[in-house]
Each structure stands twice: as structure tokens, then as C-alpha cells.
Design goal:
The structure is a homodimer of 339-residue chains. Chain A has helices at 7-14, 18-26, 33-46, 52-59, 77-91, 105-117, 163-176, 192-207, 224-235, 249-261, 279-282, 296-311; strands at residues 64-69, 95-100, 122-132, 144-150, 157-161, 182-187, 217-220, 243-246, 271-276, 290-293, 321-324, 328-329. With 339 residues, the first copy, chain A, is of the alpha/beta class. The longest helix of chain A is centred in the middle third of the chain and has 16 residues, at 192-207. In chain A, α2 packs across α3 (33-46). The interface between A and B is large, with 57 and 58 residues. β2 of chain A pairs antiparallel with β2 (95-100) of chain B, so a sheet runs across the interface. The structure holds a DNA duplex (30 and 30 nucleotides).
Chain lengths: 339, 339
DNA sequence: CACATCAACAAAAACGTTTTTGGGATTGGG
DNA sequence: CCCAATCCCAAAAACGTTTTTGTTGATGTG
């Protein structure tokens, strides 16, 4: 294999200086259109691929974005976040360097240090589910955007799902189908989603003039087993709910099992809607589970775009903290209430 | 924020030349232990973080490994592969730059090109499920290891799951529990897993002197619905199987549903074992699904370690194509056959 | 016509390391 | 006591770009 072609070779082949080649390809400097085009053609022809290490060294822009997340393995969401981030990065001629902490702050610090050594231009600090975070000290010197995470730092941009809105959307769907007695299978963890979704549940009821009934609300771990037990309790009530809104798909799966045990058919006897749109589950359940999707892909995109804007520091570079809307994904688990 | 401390500052502070600092920190050159230690301490004290762009430029080693995968979003396995790769990379002082093709070869080529521009030292070319691949031309010049993918190139290392072994392990578990009439809910796609697992099924039967009975084998798409239908057919037979070995967990979920519909209780009336160990599903099913785990984390580790060995090109750098064993994860879906 | 302005390019410096080459002190052998 | 070898370190070159500074010829201006 021949020696790699560098900017010098291109310059020689095009009969210009390396300066001119650099300017021609980057769009900078004062170069006549004719020369610029010629250089580009020559570079193309030689299959010239610039050395980003060298260009980053001089220009102080590595075009690498660091992506640090807490856990990438236990959830299938991670992939979509990463995908959104990657697509947006590619559009900006950037590439992602990813690092995982496994919730271990030592590993996290080491990972961040590695990213800094590689002179990433900025960092996406991501969590795999919406939570409040404290920013590691190592991130103080570098542009950072929070993803699925919130902090008290108003100088940092962040994006999280609109938990309350998600719950309202889910409830609106049930209410529009005619349900009035709607149970809520809630979560017990102390995380933003717990508060937000419950708030959304209450707000939706209030909006429709339905009184909040504590006996229709449960709290459990967000897993299938506990969800099943909680659902069974609600369904055992004399005047049982005609619909259940579930904190997430795992709990909803438990609700399916509880319905089955109680001899209820979904959606004829009981409607169910949930949050997560965890496809492997929602599609596999019988009937398919109508669920609110968390906008992972979109959050990934947004974070990168925000970071790019802040790096470019144009006018609109003021930090933003946004809540992203969550769309409803229709399947077959909702119907009108039994009369 | 003060100017970033470079190797010069360290040299000045330690009262030596930059050469000496470089050698002290990298372990190269002829430096007395005393000086080496002193330099290290000073560097530590100044919080010196070497610029990898610069060091890579000169040394031709970026310490970046490219990770290109076909689809990262639709499967939860991706995370574990990435995690294994990352852990191994961190141990080698390397970091991962990841790129996703979404099964689009144009995007893939662009991604690989980006990696090459950043001068990655090597590339892990990964698929999210075991399949035969054709290597993109862009990879011809760079050390590459195949992950969950096989090709006809014997000059490349690769790692895939031992499909046949996995099936044999699953079958051994059922056979040891006493089952003799074991159905196989197979897959229909033309992929290595289809052939390997069926072969393992047959081999295990043969080993135990049980005749292969075609009427106990089905082929279907590997999704819950088709799996349910296939299972129902097997269970409707006059002399129905006492156990089912499923191509994957989704089909197994279908088998659960079929069992339920047929009024059979798992594992009392029917035992089920499967392949994938897709935790969100296997744990959520009632009873828990005994399943063979695909060694994603381990394959990720292995690929990086192999690549590192080939990059170091020590003695043992001859390419290897290996099949990784798949462990059985016990849950509650297997019991003795009904008498 | 003298001078400033400008467009289009080139030469040289710079980025922060690693590697190559050089060189002075110490040691050891004859 | 002289020379070679060895040990420890420093000076300088090199990596492949981008940025800064220069240069040249053309164009306008009073």
C-alpha cells in the first residue's frame, strides 16, 4: 500500500501551495472559484482524506463530541439516544466518542478524563432515564449538554421528556374513549417521572371534572411482578376501574397478567395505556399495548444540535432547558368502557 | 480559566527537558528511576493531561478504536456488546468512536470514512445478530475484527456465538430433566443461527438415542405472534411434546401464550427453554423463562483484545475465528415431564 | 504618475507531542 | 592514563494540518 496522500501531495498535483489547498477545502481564505474547484477535484481524485488529528491540533477543533452515559446495557433506549445523537453529529461533520460509567463515579471520571485528553469539543452528559444529576467536577471546563437529566445549573442546556404532558396525553386518550373510572398504577421511586406522571394524571382528571380518588391509585416498583399485584388489588375492588394508566410498560405487562387472572379481556373489559413504548414488549403483548413513546431519538438529536449551537456561539447560544413532548403510539389495548 | 498545562510546563516545573518528560510518562527511553518518579509526581501535581491529538499525530497511534455496527437501536443487545468493548478498551488506554450504519451502505461508508479521518487504530465491525457479511472496501487498509459476523476472509479475526453449542446446552437441560418428546420452534430466516440451532437440536437428540421427528419441528418468523401459532400447532398434536425448545425468547413468549390458550401450565404440563436471555422478557414472563444467554459482553471484550493483540503485532497475532460458548440462565420454566 | 487598495496566492510559523540524533559525565578495561 | 562503552539526558526534527504574515500584480484614485 502506497504512502497515505496528504495535503502536500494534493498541493503538488494541483500546482498550488498547501495553504491554498487548505483554504479551498475548508471554504476559508480568499481563493478564486476556479482554483477552489480545481483543488477540490484534484483532492477528490487523489482520494485525499484529511488527518483530523493534525487539523484538530492546530485549529483547536477536534470535531469529536464526547458522549457519557450512566448505563447503556440494561436498557434498549440507549440505542435510540445514541442514534439520534449520531445522526445529528454526522450532519455537523462530527463524530461521537462514547464512554460509559456503569454508575460508578470513578469509572466516570476516568472516562471523562479520556475524553478530555482526546480534546473533544463538547460533551453530552446523558442518563438512561430521566433523573436529577450532580455534574462531575471534571466537566467544569468544557461545554456540556444534559440529556434525560436535569440539574440546578441554569448555565447548562438540558433536555428531558415532558413527563406531565406524557401522562396527560395518555389520560386524554382514555378519557376520549369514554372512561371515567381510571386507575393509575404508579411508581414508587423518587424520580422526576414519578412526580410528573402522577401530576399529569391528576391534572387530566381535574380538567375533565373528575374527582381524584385515592383508592384508584397504587404505588409499586416498576416491574412486572409488583405491577401485577398492584393491578390485582385495583381490579378486586367492588366498583373496579374500566381503564388503567400504567407508569411504564413493565407494570402494564403486570396489568395484563392481572387482567388475565381476573378473567378480564383487554380491551373489552379493561383498557390499558402506558408509558415507554418499549417495542419488544408492547408489540409482543396480546393485544398490542397502546403506549406513550419517550422521545429518545429526538432528545439525542436535540442535545447535539444544542451543543453545536453553543460551540458556534452565535447569537442564540443562551442555554435552554427544555421538556420534549411524548407522542402516543396506538395499538389495541384501548377501547370504550364496558357499559 | 488559565491556559492548559502542556508538556513544556511540566518540563519547566520538573527542571528537565520535554524529551525527558515524554519518556518518563510513556515508560520509554533511558531515564533513571529517580527522575522518572519525580516527573510523574510533578505532572500529577500540575494536573497534566496529554493532548492525544498531538501525540497521535507524531506517534501514529491515536488510541481510538472505531466501532461500526449495523443497528444499535432496535436491540437491547447492542448495549452489552458496546459495554464489553468499552471495558476492554479502557484497560488498554483506548477509547471507542462509534458509528452506526442503519443497514445503509452509503451511511456506513461515510461513517467509516469519518473514522479513518480521525485515524482510528483499528475497527470493530459489528453486527447486532450473527450473520455473514461482506466487508466494505473502505476497511481494506485498516486492522479489523468482526463481531457477531463472519466472512470468508481468513485473514480477519472474528467472533460469533456457538449456535450449535447453545442449542445442545438447551437441549441437554431438557433431556436431563427427563424429557424425551421435545418440540423445536425454529426460525425461518436464512441466517447462521437458523442452521446452527437446528443442528444442535438434532445432535442432542442423536446423542441421546432419540429419533428425529419432523412433526415436532416448526419454522416461523421469530416473533411472538408466529411463535404462538407454531406452538399451538405442536400442542394440538394427539401426542403432544412435553417440552419446547425455542429459537429465541420472542418465540418463547408466543409459546407461553399458546400454552395458556391450551390450558397448560408451565412448567407442570410443559417445559420451555429458549435462546437469547432477553432479560426484560425472560424475567417478566410468568414463570421466568429459562434461556441461553448470547455472550454479547464477552464478544465485545474479545474483539477489542484481539484487535489490541494484532495491533501490537506480537507473536500471537495470527487471525483467529472463534465461536463463543453460551451459558444457560436458569429460571422457572423447566420441570420434569408430566407422567 | 504616485500611492493606496485589493484579490489571489505563497511562505513560514505554529499546534503539542514523539522520535531521532547528539553529547557530556561516569565507568571499566588494558 | 587513555579509550571505549554506558548511562542519562537534551536539542532538534518531525508529524500534517491551520493560521498568520508576506508578496505580487492588478485596479482604482486624486
Amino acid at each position: 500500500m502506497s504512502k497515505r496522500v496528504g495535503i502536500r501531495e494534493v498541493a503538488a498535483a494541483a500546482g498550488v501551495s498547501v495553504t491554498t489547498v487548505s483554504h479551498s477545502l475548508s471554504g476559508g481564505g480568499q481563493i478564486s472559484d476556479a482554483t477552489r474547484e480545481r483543488v477540490k477535484t484534484v483532492a477528490e481524485g487523489l482520494n485525499y482524506a484529511p488527518n483530523r488529528l493534525a487539523s484538530g491540533l492546530r485549529s483547536k477543533r477536534s470535531q469529536i463530541i464526547g458522549f457519557v452515559s450512566d448505563e447503556i446495557s440494561t436498557t434498549p433506549y440507549a440505542g435510540n439516544v445514541l442514534l439520534g445523537a449520531q445522526d445529528a453529529a454526522a450532519a455537523n461533520d462530527q463524530v461521537l466518542m462514547v464512554v460509559n460509567s456503569n454508575r460508578n463515579s470513578t469509572i466516570e471520571d476516568r472516562g471523562i478524563d479520556a475524553l478530555l485528553q482526546h480534546r473533544v469539543d463538547g460533551i453530552i452528559y446523558a442518563r438512561m432515564y430521566h433523573q436529577a444529576v450532580e455534574l462531575p467536577a471534571a466537566l467544569s471546563g468544557i461545554p456540556t449538554v444534559l440529556l434525560d437529566a436535569s440539574s440546578d445549573r441554569t448555565d447548562l442546556s438540558s433536555v428531558v421528556p415532558d413527563e406531565e404532558g406524557a401522562a396527560r396525553t395518555a389520560m386524554a386518550h382514555l378519557l376520549e374513549a369514554g372512561h371515567r373510572r381510571i386507575g393509575y398504577l404508579g411508581n414508587i421511586d423518587d424520580i422526576p417521572a414519578t412526580r410528573g406522571r402522577l401530576a399529569g394524571y391528576r391534572a387530566a382528571l381535574a380538567e375533565h371534572g373528575i374527582a381524584f380518588d385515592e383508592s384508584l391509585v397504587t404505588e409499586s416498583e416498576s416491574m412486572t411482578g409488583p405491577g401485577r399485584d398492584a393491578a390485582s388489588r385495583l381490579l378486586a375492588q367492588p366498583e373496579r376501574p374500566t381503564a388503567l394508566f400504567c407508569f411504564n410498560d413493565r407494570i402494564a405487562m403486570g396489568a395484563y397478567q392481572a387482567a388475565h387472572l381476573a378473567g378480564l379481556e383487554i380491551p373489552r373489559d379493561l383498557s390499558i395505556v402506558s408509558i415507554d413504548n418499549f417495542e419488544v414488549l408492547a408489540d409482543a403483548l396480546l393485544p398490542g399495548l397502546t403506549s406513550i413513546a419517550l422521545p429518545h431519538y429526538e432528545m439525542g438529536r436535540w442535545a447535539i444540535e444544542r451543543l453545536a449551537a453553543e460551540l458556534a456561539d452565535d447569537a442564540d447560544s443562551a442555554p435552554q432547558q427544555i421538556q420534549m413532548p411524548c407522542p402516543l403510539v396506538l395499538r389495541q389495548s384501548v377501547g370504550p368502557p364496558p357499559r
